[in-house]
Amino acid sequence: MINTNAFDYINVLDKAADASWLRNEAIANNIANATTPGYKRQDVAFESELQRALGRNKYIPMDTKVAKIRTSQLAARPFTDNESFSYRLDGNNVDIENENVMLAENQLKYQGLLTSINQEFANLQSVMK
Fold first, then answer.
1. Which residues of the chain are under the pLDDT cut of 70?
2. By the 8 A CB rule, do 49 and 83 touch?
3. How far is it, in rounded angstroms, from Cα 47 to Cα 49?
4. DSSP for residue 6
5. Sequence-distant (≥ 6) Cβ neighbours of residue 116 within 8 angstroms
6. Which residues contact 34 (CB under 8 A, 6 or more apart)?
7. Contacts of 85 (CB under 8 A, 6+ apart)
8. What is the pLDDT of residue 4?
């Protein structure tokens, strides 16, 4: 078997795309429950996990940082956002306008991640030619 790190970026981008997809589902669920009394908005934490995995040392090349990431430990974590905060008297903390903006932002992020994954495969394909 060939020992290579050619798929390091692809694996990390794949995890990021999965997290973005999960966030899209959470935001859609928030929008669907915008009028449900007592509902608390959900979100997904991934960027902080990725930042922690990459480390803070600015003198290490990004290729080295990405190669050291164990993708099995890189996971998106759903969480309830601002449980004690509420916009309304019924206990709901979903701001529909904010959710729509976050949905658009997340969709752009997801499309960018897919474009990056496709570009990584195109790079591998051109190397193999």
1. 1-4
2. no
3. 5
4. T
5. 9, 13
6. 92, 94, 96, 99
7. 93
8. 57
Number of neighbours of residue 109 by Cβ within 10 angstroms: 17
What type of residue sits at position 128? M
Please, what's the b/e burial string for 79-88 (b: 16 or more CB within 10 A of its CB; e: otherwise)? eeeeeeeeee
In whole angstroms, how far apart are CA 37 and each of 25, 42, 65, 98, 115? 20, 15, 45, 18, 39
Q: In 3D, which of 54, 44, 48 has the Cα closest to residue 9?
A: 54
Residue ranges per structural domain of the chain: 8-124
Q: Give the per-residue pLDDT at 123.
A: 86
Q: What is the pLDDT of residues 23-41, one digit of tens each?
A: 999 999 999 999 999 999 9
DSSP label at residue 1: -
**How much is the CA Rg of the chain, to the nearest whole Å?**
18
pLDDT of residue 1: 38
Say how many C-beta atoms besides its own lie within 10 A of residue 46's C-beta: 19
